[in-house]
Design a protein that fits this description.
With 244 residues, the protein is of the alpha/beta class. It contains seven helices and 13 strands. Helix content is 27%, strand content 31%.
């Protein structure tokens, strides 16, 4: 059985974490040998009681797992922290607000036979990506302006993600060392706010796992935030929350 490490980036939202871990354990983790589990709980969204509940939920699934409890929240720092701690060849990364829509087993590793594939991300409706039309490699077309007209280049750049995915362990390590803690980690891959990271990942690819060209996971955090009037604002590659 293939070994993986599990990385979880969480806030103080025990209700979401419980649903997420129950779903992923039933549909994904049972198909792999879990070598290690690492969770970062940022002091955001809930209180200390919620924090303790998250600890209990995580330990009920991973009694030997490692938990990071920073004094201040920081999305990029959280992702970098758990990625840097891993030791397995493959790393399953997720946040605390996703559920699986079907079983996902070792077939998800097949795209790594291509050495350019550094990440296999699980297809979600939020990606607005049509595999039949655009293919499995998630890339962004680049443009330039000529005489005031926006024209496409013949090149594109890879789009990597922090939504549920499997990464090569060495890729996770190298990226964690290049993250700017002040910027949203996902935006740093392609938004022009971290040139060192963009250069590092330029030759590589993110493969969208979508066997039937439909989502295999669902974001349950958006409704949670909407119900509470919480909005994510991204400015120059940095994320903040409003309405908390």
């Amino acid at each position: 059985m293939t070994k993986i490490d599990i990385c979880i980036v969480a806030g103080r939202r025990p209700d979401l974490l419980a649903e997420t871990l129950s779903s992923m354990s039933s549909h994904v983790f049972r198909h792999f040998e879990v070598a290690g589990a690492y969770m970062n709980i940022d002091p955001i969204f809930g209180d200390q009681s919620n924090h303790e509940q998250c600890l209990e939920i995580f330990k009920s699934h991973f009694p030997q797992g490692t938990v990071f409890e920073p004094e201040a929240p920081g999305f990029a720092a959280a992702v970098g922290r758990v990625w840097a701690a891993t030791t397995a060849e493959f790393v399953f990364h997720m946040e605390d607000d996703w559920i699986a829509l079907q079983d996902i087993g070792v077939e998800v590793l097949a795209p790594f036979e291509d050495p350019s594939v550094a990440q296999v991300s699980l297809h979600t409706a939020e990606k607005y990506w049509d595999v039949k039309k655009s293919g499995h490699l998630h890339r962004k077309r680049q443009y330039f302006r000529f005489a005031g007209v926006k024209l496409p280049k013949f090149t594109s750049k890879p789009i990597f993600t922090t939504s549920p995915s499997i990464l090569r362990g060495d890729f996770a390590h190298s990226c964690s060392a290049l993250f700017d803690p002040a910027k949203d980690p996902e935006k740093q891959f392609y938004l022009g706010v971290n040139s060192a990271l963009e250069s590092h990942v330029a030759p590589l690819n993110n493969f969208i796992f979508s066997p039937e060209n439909k989502p295999v996971i669902r974001d349950i955090g958006r409704d949670w935030r909407s119900d509470r009037g919480i909005t994510k604002i991204v400015t120059n590659g940095s994320s903040t929350w409003e309405g908390m």
